[in-house]
């Protein structure tokens, strides 16, 4: 398995019907109708009575459970899963090997109400990834019942992360991040945690040649209310995947390719046999930090301040008439020496103000600024 061949396969199997960040049940239903190989089931229903689907691929002895869009606004891995489904419909050597050795149970959208409204939480405003113990929501119970019935040997918990994350305290954006969750307060390195770490280490090794220093590792502070921590506590190696940001990729179409590769590499490692002695390389992955803003205007004169400042802009993702909009919000006005912008604008000491010549206030929405008599757009 190598990056070049996987990227070539991706171009052949990419699902054209799924694009951008707003992915809902109605979109994936059109794609489900075109698949011929999986067993597709309705596991249950969301708070607002939307179906929660599962797809079963393969009949091998190794059982792997994967789920995506537990948070409704984290859709990149859902797109990548459907690209994987298309590959499983072909006679690729990799897909044949995976499906001969594994049985995959996949939930592409666990939180269809949140997906519809583009929110993290479900219709009852509950974060499903903090409901692993209370099981207060129908979606949480659907996942737990599936876990109990299927009895997986591995779990892939697929998420998306904000653009603020860096791989370490650096100017390297965390394009992907991973975690082998803790299963107790002491964060003991159990055999199942080491297995998850070893898989992540091999994924990281594969992707470093294309996104060098662009993969981060989340802090493994223990929270039994999180699904990953709970399943790890059950003794099942559980991997948290997080799709992050890549340069000029706010639709996360390039990150989608990286997730496609990372999912398949994870499966391939399992098929070939997990060597838990490789777990130590997991700790070579830098821990995530929050070093990025979407835009930073550097060395600006602003708001009658005596000293030059940097202006940080962060995009708020807003669903407007069924389309996702990135709304620029002023996040900080100060010197940001240890922060980085996905886009940086050099003001060179010029006055930066709004179109109406008003002050730039924290929390204000601002699509454009005026600088040196030039109108500058802040949108992606």
UniProtKB/TrEMBL annotation:
Q: Tell me, which GO biological process terms does this entry list?
A: proteolysis
* InterPro entries assigned: Peptidase_M14
Under Gene Ontology molecular function, one entry of this record is: zinc ion binding
Pfam families for this protein: Peptidase_M14 (PF00246)
Tell me which residues make up the Peptidase M14 domain: 21-267
Domain of life of the source: Bacteria
As for family, the record states: Belongs to the peptidase M14 family.
Name recorded for this polypeptide: Peptidase M14 domain-containing protein
**Species this chain originates from:** Winogradskyella psychrotolerans RS-3
């Amino acid at each position: 398995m190598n990056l070049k061949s996987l990227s070539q396969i991706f171009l052949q199997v990419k699902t054209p019907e799924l694009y951008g960040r707003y992915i809902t049940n109605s979109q994936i239903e059109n794609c489900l109708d075109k698949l011929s190989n999986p067993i597709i089931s309705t596991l249950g229903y969301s708070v607002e009575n939307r179906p929660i689907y599962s797809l079963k691929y393969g009949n091998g002895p190794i059982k792997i459970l994967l789920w995506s869009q537990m948070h409704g606004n984290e859709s990149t891995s859902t797109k990548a899963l459907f690209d994987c489904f298309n590959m499983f419909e072909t006679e690729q050597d990799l897909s044949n090997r995976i499906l001969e050795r594994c049985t995959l149970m996949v939930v592409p959208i666990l939180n269809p109400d949140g997906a519809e409204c583009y929110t993290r939480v479900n219709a009852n405003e509950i974060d499903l990834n903090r409901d692993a113990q209370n099981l207060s929501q129908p979606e949480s119970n659907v996942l737990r019942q599936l876990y109990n019935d299927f009895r997986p040997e591995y779990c892939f918990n697929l998420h998306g992360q904000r653009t603020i994350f860096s791989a370490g305290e650096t100017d390297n954006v965390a394009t992907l991040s991973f975690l082998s969750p803790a299963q107790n307060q002491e964060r003991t390195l159990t055999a199942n945690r080491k297995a998850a770490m070893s898989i992540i280490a091999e994924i990281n090794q594969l992707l470093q040649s294309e996104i060098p220093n662009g993969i981060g590792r989340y802090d493994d502070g223990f929270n039994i209310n999180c699904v990953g921590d709970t399943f790890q506590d059950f003794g099942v190696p559980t991997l948290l995947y997080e799709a992050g940001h890549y340069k000029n990729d706010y639709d996360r179409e390039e990150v989608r390719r990286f997730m496609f590769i990372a999912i398949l590499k994870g499966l391939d490692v399992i098929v070939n046999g997990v060597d838990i002695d490789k777990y130590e390389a997991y700790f070579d992955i830098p821990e995530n930090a929050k070093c990025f803003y979407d835009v930073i205007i550097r060395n600006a004169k602003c708001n009658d301040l005596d000293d030059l400042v940097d202006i940080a802009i962060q995009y708020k993702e807003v669903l407007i008439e069924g389309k996702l909009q990135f709304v620029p919000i002023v996040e900080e006005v100060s010197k940001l020496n240890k922060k980085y912008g996905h886009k940086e604008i050099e003001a060179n000491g010029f006055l930066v103000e709004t179109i109406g010549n008003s002050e730039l206030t924290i929390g204000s929405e601002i699509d454009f600024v005026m600088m040196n008599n030039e109108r500058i757009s802040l949108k992606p």
